[in-house]
Design a protein that fits this description.
This protein is α/β, with parallel strands linked by helices. It contains 15 helices and 10 strands. Helices cover about 30% and strands about 10% of the residues. The strands form 2 sheets. It has an 8-stranded mixed sheet, sandwiched between helices.
Length: about 475
């Protein structure tokens, strides 16, 4: 068997969409895909009383104004009794929700014009992983930490609005640290609020962070100078938000996917040795019909959850000239990426979950030669930009804005996050977001962080 031909792995992780919602309709293209059969009786959830049901139907909503809940208690309620609790959980949070808002929770984007033209075009041309689950039935930070480190150190709750509740010292080893030790190049490209900097060991590698505009410059350069591993963080909040987290316009995320693909595809030497992985951190409270399977605990930390099952299925694509159009049905979760990288480059395995995870390496060994029929580009959809100074920040946005403001206004050190920020987090406007981005920029530019990896007395950052 020949060796893995991939030299560059690029991961773009978007936010808060389920597999059924985004890719389920492609069962009409791939009959073996476990998605939505439009010719069969529609799956339903009860809609508040036994006489009312909400069925799984096509939708074309670009903006979902009401953000479905996705903290761990909500997700466990959603997946109960064969994933029958999505609408009940949504109504618990939004009892006055309209029929259309309920339909958006149960809906899916159809295969065809006017839908997800970028994601669906790439899915038709490359490999769909139809059993890729998020690592934990819970929210954004937890699942992103699993992608980077294989654990969240026992935590599932998002930080509170004041950012002094449930904020912990995430000082576990990371894939980036392992890559650095192994002499492998890597970079993180971001839109001003890099969530990965909540990992304290990342403060040793601030020179590896670049604005996303630099990604397109680097992708156009010599292939041998492009990093071996790249992680792209979308814009999490503000007028140009493109992470696809409600209530942002889903087409803004489509445009980001298209630009990233086109950048790689436009450099033939880079393209022939690259793998682009499109992922979503978690399902965001949107319906998926497949119950998450059991999983091994990553470590002994179970402070806030048992970590013995995976979260809801999320969209996942493997995009490369070395993969064939089709479906891989193996069970993956975010630690499968870590397992692939560890096996490929001889890195240590990050925790028990990574050690037990399935790698997707076999999908990269199916072809004898690189394909020449991949789309040379995909059209970039028009994006929308909010002209209002006011924004509805989701939990991730609120946490990152508060974190960034502290980096701008407070001295670095382990106690800095206990000091109130100068701009109240209640302000959700353009000025607050720009202040937060300035804080991250200052930290990255100066590299003056002095985070302690020793826990303060009393476990303030919390691995009690």
């Amino acid at each position: 068997m020949r060796t893995d031909p991939i030299e560059h792995i690029v991961v773009l992780m978007l936010e808060n969409r389920s597999f059924d919602q985004m890719l389920g309709s492609l069962q009409s293209i791939y009959p073996q895909l476990e998605g939505v059969d439009a010719t069969a009786e529609a799956r339903v959830n009860l809609g508040g009383d036994p006489t009312r049901t909400v069925a799984q139907r096509p939708v074309l909503s670009r903006v979902t104004k009401l953000d479905p809940m996705h903290e761990t208690p909500n997700v466990l309620r959603q997946i109960t009794d064969g994933c029958s609790g999505f609408i009940a959980d949504f109504l618990q949070a939004y009892p006055q929700a309209t029929d259309q808002q309920l339909q958006d929770v149960m809906g899916y984007y159809p295969a065809g014009p006017g839908s997800l033209t970028v994601l669906h075009a790439l899915a038709r041309s490359f490999t769909v992983c139809d059993h890729w689950f998020c690592s934990v039935p819970g929210p954004t930070w937890t699942n992103r930490l699993f992608l980077h480190t294989g654990t969240s150190l026992g935590r599932v709750k998002m930080p509170g609005d004041s950012l002094d509740l449930n904020l912990h010292c995430y000082d576990q080893p990371t894939i980036f640290q392992l890559l650095h030790t192994a002499g492998r190049s890597w970079k993180i490209y971001h839109h001003g609020l890099p969530q990965s900097l909540v990992l304290t060991r990342q403060w040793d590698y601030l020179d590896h962070y670049r604005d996303v505009d630099q990604f397109y410059v680097d992708a156009a350069g010599p292939a041998q100078e492009f990093p071996g591993y790249v992680f792209i963080e979308p814009d999490y909040c503000g007028p140009d938000q493109n992470d696809q987290h409600p209530p942002s316009d889903v087409m803004n995320g489509e445009a980001l996917i298209a630009r990233v693909y086109n950048a790689l595809r436009g450099n033939e030497a880079l393209w022939r040795t690259s793998l682009l992985v499109i992922l979503y951190d978690e399902h965001g409270g949107f319906y998926d019909h497949v119950a998450p399977p059991a999983a091994v605990r990553p470590d002994d930390h179970t402070e806030e959850f048992t970590f013995d099952r995976l979260g809801v299925r999320v969209p996942a694509l493997l995009i490369s000239p070395w993969v064939a159009p089709g479906v891989v049905a193996n069970v993956f979760d975010h630690t499968s990426l870590l397992r692939y990288l560890s096996d490929k480059w001889g890195l240590a395995l990050l925790g028990n979950r990574t050690a037990q995870a399935n790698s997707f390496a076999d999908a990269l060994l199916a072809l004898d030669a690189a394909r020449t029929d991949a789309p040379p580009s995909v059209p970039v959809p028009a994006v929308t930009r909010s002209e209002s100074s006011q924004f509805v920040l989701d939990a991730n946005g609120r946490a990152l804005v508060g974190y960034g403001q502290r980096l701008q206004t407070q001295p670095y050190g382990r106690d800095s996050l206990t000091v109130p920020i100068s701009t109240p987090l209640g302000r959700q406007d353009a000025a607050a977001i720009e202040a937060a981005k300035a804080g991250f920029a200052r930290a990255i530019r100066t590299g003056q962080a002095s985070w302690s990896r020793q826990e303060p007395a009393g476990g303030r950052f919390g691995r009690a």
